[in-house]
Amino acid sequence: MHKKTALFWLSYICCTTGAVVAADGRKDALPFRSADLVALQGENLVPFKTATLQSARYTVLYFSAGWCPDCRHFSPILVKAYNHQPAAGPRYEVVLVSKDRSAGEMLNYMKSEHMPWPALAFEKVSEAKELANFRSGEAVPWLTVLDSKGTIVLQSKSDQDANEILEELAKLVSNGAKNKPSSGVN
After folding, report:
1. Does pTM surpass 0.90?
2. What is the pLDDT along the chain (186 residues), one digit of tens a residue?
3. DSSP helix, strand, coil percent of the chain (3-state; round to 5)
4. What is the maximum span of the chain, computed from C-alpha positions, in angstroms?
5. Strands 92-98, 58-64: parallel, antiparallel or unpaired by DSSP?
6. How far is CA 176 from CA 45, 62, 90, 161, 180, in A?
7. Residue-wise DSSP of 51-113
8. Which residue, among 30, 9, 11, has the nearest Cα to 21 in the 3D structure?
9. What is the C-alpha separation between 104 and 168, in angstroms, rounded?
10. DSSP 8-state code for residue 183
11. How far apart are CA 14 and CA 130, in angstroms?
12. Beta-carbon contacts of residue 43 (< 8 Å; ≥ 6 apart)
């Protein structure tokens, strides 16, 4: 997907679904409202406070499902990378967009993989048809990395290159976005 097209769709989504608004009044470029996100707390999903998303330099949309063997293989890698980010400095946040068949399956998947990031609430996934604009295929796992302006900077081309995208994201974060990654969206 072209960067300009992605930015158009993000603008459209934010206008039609309500964008997250940061404390300083700027509208975040993500197509989620606070009420649309949930996170694990113990054994349950609870509403997620969006402050960490608003301050993140990058947001990773992680399309995944517990029934998918490749996702089960990749999720621990993503969790480890996420948990090993430096406490200070540029960071990224992840939002799970579940392709599971039920809210219970999504909850079990998040618990079994110890996902420390929020997810789009299961009942909101089917309503968010415009999220298809952030993927060019149906395969999972699928990663789309957005900068703070909502521009797609990295995106999987198939379910096999999620590890490569994660490596490129690590370079972006460590370089402070000074160097453009070698792969990504044209």
Report:
1. no
2. 444 433 333 333 333 333 433 333 334 456 666 678 999 999 999 998 777 777 888 999 999 999 999 999 999 999 999 998 877 766 899 999 999 999 999 999 999 999 999 999 999 988 877 777 787 777 889 999 998 888 899 998 765 688 889 989 988 888 764 544 444 443
3. 40, 20, 40
4. 42
5. parallel
6. 32, 22, 6, 23, 10
7. HHHHH-SEEEEEEE-TT-HHHHHHHHHHHHHHHTS-SSS--EEEEEEE--SSHHHHHHHHHHT
8. 30
9. 33
10. S
11. 11
12. 111
Packing angle, helices 162-175 and 69-83, rounded to 10: 10
Domain 3-175 sits in CATH at 3.40.30.10
Q: How far apart are CA 95 and CA 180, in angstroms?
A: 23
| Residue indicated by tokens 């206008």 | 15
**Amino acid type, 134:** F
